[in-house]
């Protein structure tokens, strides 16, 4: 975590986590200080470094410790009753927050982002210029880049355990179509577009439509226009279609924000009206 002293304290608390409880005031204060860093965007659960996703295990451990050390407390949000260990986020400087949007303390939303009626869980990060559209979910520790559009009903999965596990990462300029799901630490690279209803997990097989080549599992390639598909596999009981992700085309640099270009590619391949 950004504060080395806090990070070392989290390491020490983690080693004796089975002995901790809500009555441990000093431990709770240290964990709250660590989660406050995540809430303010001064620390992140994970970030992209070159070709890798680097996970801050201390940040994830702090979140897990919070569930042990924070007592259950009553509250309200927009007239709704809340009874939880983790309070709701209360500060959104520079963010457009539409009625019905909920974000838990410990998540961070950069100025310039838009939260429609949606849910952002603890440890989640939403970059500037991004929109979390109606009924979309940003799961625990999921990392959403800048200028990303999570369309209506999109499910971005969360991850807390084990601490070293990589969360879902949606990189800058990506577009996730309505009702799509990206879970289990899958990754959508910069400028990639997922058509409506696509499912991407860590084990999802990814193929190029033009060449038939198989790409890295669980990853939507940079600037790729992708749709959910299936691939036939033979079993003793018969032939069955197993889900996969199909890359229809790669957009040229500079097309990252062109949703009309995306629509044309999908329509050309018969997957858009």
UniProtKB/TrEMBL annotation:
GO biological process, alphabetically ordered: diaminopimelate biosynthetic process; lysine biosynthetic process
Sample GO molecular function, one term: transferase activity
SUPFAM superfamilies with a match to the protein in the record: Trimeric LpxA-like enzymes
Keywords tagged on the record: Amino-acid biosynthesis, Diaminopimelate biosynthesis, Lysine biosynthesis, Repeat, Transferase
InterPro entries: Hexapep, Hexapep_transf_CS, THP_succinylTrfase_dom1, THP_succinylTrfase_N_sf, Trans_hexapeptide_repeat, Trimer_LpxA-like_sf
Domain of life of the organism encoding this protein: Bacteria
UniProt-listed Gene3D superfamilies: Hexapeptide repeat proteins (2.160.10.10), Tetrahydrodipicolinate-N-succinyltransferase, N-terminal domain (1.10.166.10)
CDD domains per the UniProt record, alphabetical: LbH_THP_succinylT
Ranges where the Tetrahydrodipicolinate-N-succinyltransferase chain A domain occurs: 9-69
Family: Belongs to the transferase hexapeptide repeat family.
Name used for this protein in its record: 2,3,4,5-tetrahydropyridine-2,6-dicarboxylate N-succinyltransferase
């Amino acid at each position: 975590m950004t504060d080395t002293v806090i990070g070392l304290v989290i390491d020490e608390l983690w080693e004796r986590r089975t002995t901790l409880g809500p009555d441990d005031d000093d431990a709770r204060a240290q964990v709250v200080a660590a989660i406050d860093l995540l809430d303010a965007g001064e620390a992140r659960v994970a970030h992209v470094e070159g070709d890798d996703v680097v996970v801050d295990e201390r940040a994830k451990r702090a979140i897990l410790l919070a569930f042990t050390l924070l007592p259950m407390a009553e509250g309200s949000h927009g007239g709704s009753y809340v009874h939880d260990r983790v309070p709701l986020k209360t500060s959104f400087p520079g963010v457009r927050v539409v009625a019905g949007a909920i974000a838990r303390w410990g998540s961070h939303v950069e100025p310039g982002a838009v939260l429609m009626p949606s849910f952002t869980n603890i440890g989640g990060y939403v970059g500037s210029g991004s929109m979390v559209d109606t009924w979309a979910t940003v799961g625990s520790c999921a990392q959403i880049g800048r200028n990303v559009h999570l369309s209506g009903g999109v499910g971005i999965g969360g991850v807390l355990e084990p601490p070293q596990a990589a969360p879902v990462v949606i990189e800058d300029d990506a577009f996730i179509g309505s009702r799509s799901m990206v879970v289990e630490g899958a990754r959508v690279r910069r400028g990639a577009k997922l058509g409506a209803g696509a499912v991407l997990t860590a084990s999802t097989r990814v193929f190029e439509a033009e060449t038939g080549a198989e790409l890295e599992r669980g990853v939507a390639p940079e600037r790729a226009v992708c749709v959910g598909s299936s691939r036939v596999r033979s079993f003793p009981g018969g032939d069955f279609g197993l889900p996969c992700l199909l890359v229809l085309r790669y957009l040229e640099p500079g097309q990252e924000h062109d949703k009309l270009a995306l629509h044309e590619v999908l329509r050309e391949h018969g997957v858009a009206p």
